[in-house]
Design brief:
This protein is mainly alpha-helical. The protein has 8 helices and 2 strands.
Length: 191
């Protein structure tokens, strides 16, 4: 989770312009991407999340959320980085990890993946499989909203827990770019 978040931040900082605002930004970006790449368990098709100090993975696959955050990070790298090697590796990681998400049950994992899809499609917009996954995950969030939200409780679930704004953000981006007016409306209303 943390390395995925750090990789996203490094790419966003790099996106600010020619003069990196952080010393050693390129080295940091490479380190975080290497960790995200090493975390992908090719046998399980999911990302591991915990590593010991001895550099041994402590889980075969992490949570749905941690896998989806890794996809979000890979999508950001594929869509934003100016370094060809980083972009190619990030796109490869994204494409390998994406097929597993449609079976997930975590709304936040759907949202994190949608954020990664949005970033990935900045550069690879003709990918029909990715566009189809975006439509399916967007529909899952819209359905969740319809099954739970009321006038007194405009939310996707019966409780408010963590990373809540990501659900709204994912629907706003997907609704805007697909376009999907209902998703956009729900994203704004839930925000």
């Amino acid at each position: 989770d943390d390395n995925a978040r750090a990789f996203i931040l490094c790419n966003l900082l790099d996106d600010l312009g020619d003069e990196p605002p952080v010393e050693n930004l390129g080295r940091l970006t490479t380190t975080y991407l290497a960790f995200v790449a090493a975390a992908l368990n090719h046998g399980a098709g999911r990302s591991s999340n915990f590593m010991s100090h001895g550099r041994v993975w402590l889980d075969d696959s992490g949570s749905e959320d941690s896998h989806a955050r890794a996809l979000w990070a890979a999508g950001v790298g594929a869509g934003r980085t100016r370094i060809d090697g980083h972009r190619k590796l990030a796109a490869q990681l994204f494409e390998r990890g994406l097929p597993f998400v449609e079976s997930f049950s975590s709304p936040r994992a759907w949202a994190f993946t949608l954020l990664g899809i949005h970033e990935y499609l900045r550069r690879y917009d003709a990918n029909q499989e990715v566009n189809a996954t975006r439509a399916a995950l967007t529909d899952k969030l819209v359905t969740l909203w319809k099954n739970c939200a009321t006038e007194d409780w405009p939310w996707f679930e019966q409780s408010v827990t963590y990373d809540n704004a990501r659900l709204s953000q994912a629907l706003i981006l997907s609704g805007q770019w697909m376009p999907h007016p209902e998703a956009l409306r729900i994203g704004i209303e839930s925000l």
